[in-house]
Amino acid sequence: MNTSLPHVYIRDIGQHTGKEVLLKGWLYARRSSGKLHFLQLRDGTGIIQCVMFVKDVPEETFKLADHITQESSIMVSGMVREDKRSPLGFELGVTGLEVVQMAAPDYPIAPKEHGVAFLMENRHLWLRSSRQLAIMNVRAEIISAVRDYFNGKGFLPVDAPVFTPAACEGTSTLFEVDYFDDKAYLTQSGQLYMEAAAMAFGKVYCFGPTFRAEKSKTRRHLTEFWMVEPEMAYCDLSQDMDVAEDFIEYIVSRVLKNRAAELKALERDTAPLERVKKPFPRITYDEAIALLQKDGNPAKWGDDFGGDEETVISKNFDRPVMINRYPAACKAFYMKKDPANPKLALCVDVIAPEGYGEIIGGGQREDDLETLRAKIQENKLPEQAFGWYLDLRKYGSVPHAGFGLGIERTVSWICGLHHVRETIPFARMMDKIWP
Ligand code: 4AD
Ligand code: MG
Question: How do strand 357-364 and strand 400-406 relate by DSSP bridges?
């Protein structure tokens, strides 16, 4: 085989029509019929059908192709041809083949239906499937869109620490780790640090992994997930919601524009995504309770919402819905109380349409020193761990607000996936830390 041919990635194959190229990848599937072998080659950027005719290649090459095992690493040379019937639009007329490594014959993931539990145990291999290729590309698009959005709007990216001395989102979901002669916690959210950064730099965001010792085995919960958290000085709840809706509209439009092929591969109905346009409905918690009760849900004032309630509420709207002003008692200690009704917090949860649940939580922060100190005591949080956080209210405190968007729930919604475990390369859940 002529290995000096230009090495081309399948993604770019359309630029080489009528030319002979070299592809390097793995055998995804194979089908043979006497004089022909159809080799499905994947290289991480796509899958292409390589057609090998008995008379186009040396006899031993044709014989070799008959014995290649699934997932063997191979290099194939051939002529790029247009092929309107294939999903890619091109195929390769094979001129040569070289096996880099013949894979062991017992590759566990056969091209048939497997249960998800089995596939999750083989996640290191399952990632090679065309479905996972599509999901990871949508995830990557969302991540670039997140960075492009905030960088383009004058937000400074500020990285938050992963080891933290105290809780941000309640003490019941903390992962404790030994920290020399002391203990520390894996971060639940970078928010408190972003508040410090917002007072330094105005508009900021962090984007990184966050951790929750969630004892809930639901389709929406991971113990390790990625969150993007913008924070803005001189910002109130209403302006915070403006940013959240503009940001979500942008992310969805980017995926629709750049990842249409992936959404198609995932059989995602894109009509509901096309409808994700500003303005999003904004309802109060009180209105949400009324919607639930109208639907026969037993929710009563004061209850926090779980996945079931969020699903019922989302069914009333054709785009994300922004539920604001929850009872302060349901929400974290740092939320500012509504001056119009101190039982309420100036907060917002954005619920994705089609029953995908809460994708954003955020709101305006308590900016008064004494009120915040009282809240810390009320929540029995160690005051000395929050000394630096209280300082932010001592030295030039201003109204400020922000939010956190969970990447995995967003990927799950946009891709139309039932469970968040497929949205992250290696999911961490209560009962899962392998592979
Ligand atoms: O609502 P949460 O807990 O809000 C915060 O952490 C705030 N400190 C954010 C802020 O204002 N800067 O989490 C925000 C989002 C949720 O809406 C959800 O999308 C995601 O993070 N999330 C999870 N995703 C997967 N698994 C979990 N266990 C999650 N917990 C929260
Ligand atoms: Mg929340």
Answer: antiparallel
Q: Are residues 82 and 179 in the same domain?
A: no
| 158 assigned to some structural domain | yes
pLDDT band at residue 111 using 50, 70 and 90 as cut-offs: confident
Query: Which residue in 413, 100, 393, 167 sits closest to 273, CA to CA?
Result: 413
Q: Answer yes or no: do 252 and 395 share one domain.
A: yes
CA of 310 to the centre of ligand 2 (A): 11
* Whether residue 97 is found in the same domain as residue 130: no
CA distance 1 to 92: 15
pTM of the model: 0.97
- Its domain, for residue 29, covers 10-101
Structure tokens at 157: 């990216």
Q: Where are the alpha helices (DSSP H) in 295-367?
A: 307-314
Question: 185, 189, 216: which to mutate for ligand 1, most atoms within 8 A of CB?
Answer: 189
C-alpha 43 – ligand 2 centre gap (Å): 39
Q: Read off the pLDDT of residues 189-231 as tens digits, 9 standing for 90 and up.
A: 999 999 999 999 999 999 999 999 988 899 999 999 999 999 9
